Predict the structure.
Amino acid sequence: QIITGLFLAMHYTSDTMTAFSSVTHICRDVNYGWLIRYMHANGASMFFICLFLHVGRGLYYGSYTFMETWNIGVLLLFAVMATAFMGYVLPWGQMSFWG
């Protein structure tokens, strides 16, 4: 995620008027930009699948009885979800505006 994100950041423009066109530029004009973008998006989805499996395993084995560790894990889960939301709205596309 970090490596693909850095490659995407090299060509991304964060201005609200040109953000979507810079994403289009990455997909169309940058060599293998489409592949890097889709690896980044699908990598985030795979990360969340692994994260939810980890939470499910913790629930199955009763790890929630260790309250301090469990609460830190829940805080980390919310931090990761907030980070993913920010990455979701970053391209300023129609889904970013209307959900």
Remarks:
- Residues 44 and 81 are 11 Å apart (CA to CA).
